[in-house]
Amino acid sequence: MKIKQLIILILAGIFISSCGSKKKTVSSESPRAQRTESVERTHRPDAPVKNYANVVEEYISNFANIAQEEMRLYKIPASITLAQGILESGAGRGDLSLRANNHFGIKCHEWKGDRVYHDDDSSQECFRKYNDPKYSYRDHSLFLSERKRYAGLFDLKIDDYEGWAKGLRSAGYATDKLYPKKLIDIIERYELHKFDEEVLGIKGTLRRSPVVERDGPVHRVQQGDTLYSIARRYNTTVENIQKKNNLRDTTISIGQELVVP
């Protein structure tokens, strides 16, 4: 009897041991979820960039009246003054024009006023600084009218912009052989000679809008306006304004009335 009980105990121990070895081990630590970081990317639209023609037209609109006044006082063609301003100041975007309102690269010489230093023919040369660009225009007129080497220019017809462009280079104003051609190209591309004709009162050259039927808003051109800026303001196009007002080009003048389609 004791042997039978002993055998039963041994078998029971073996059974319990085998069950324990087959028991799965379960980790108490739950799987760690992977963290995904979401990054929202936004695209910043590029700022609208004006093309060079629009920049030049804006410059002309801003300074044509000043150039015409200098023409009346000092007998220098407004077309020449404007073309020089456009060329030498980068249409008002050059370093000297932005920092010093100096549109003609006029150096200090005997100047007692404010000044800036800028690399030109030599490093850090002294240039005049003005409170307003119109004083740069006045100094440009004085520079040409008070120096003997430019005296021959004033013997030319005041509307002979080609003669003036070539004469400036011959008198030593610029060393660039292409300087006259550059001025003439600017004058003819933007029809700057019309400003000379306005001052001289030549009939038929005033840039006034043809008579058009006013079946839309009327915009009176202000200083600084261009067809491009007007078109943007009224959510239309330059071509639509030109067609509506029978304009052959993009030239406009202060006080001119335009019907906006």
Automatic annotation (TrEMBL):
Swiss-Prot/TrEMBL GO biological process terms: defense response to bacterium; killing of cells of another organism
GO molecular function: amidase activity
Domain LysM: 217-260
Pfam families: Glucosaminidase (PF01832), LysM (PF01476)
PROSITE patterns in UniProt: LYSM, PROKAR_LIPOPROTEIN
Compositional bias annotation for Basic and acidic residues: 32-46
Protein's UniProt keywords contain Hydrolase: yes
Region (Disordered): 22-46
UniProtKB keywords: Antimicrobial, Bacteriolytic enzyme, Hydrolase
Name of the molecule in the record: Peptidoglycan hydrolase
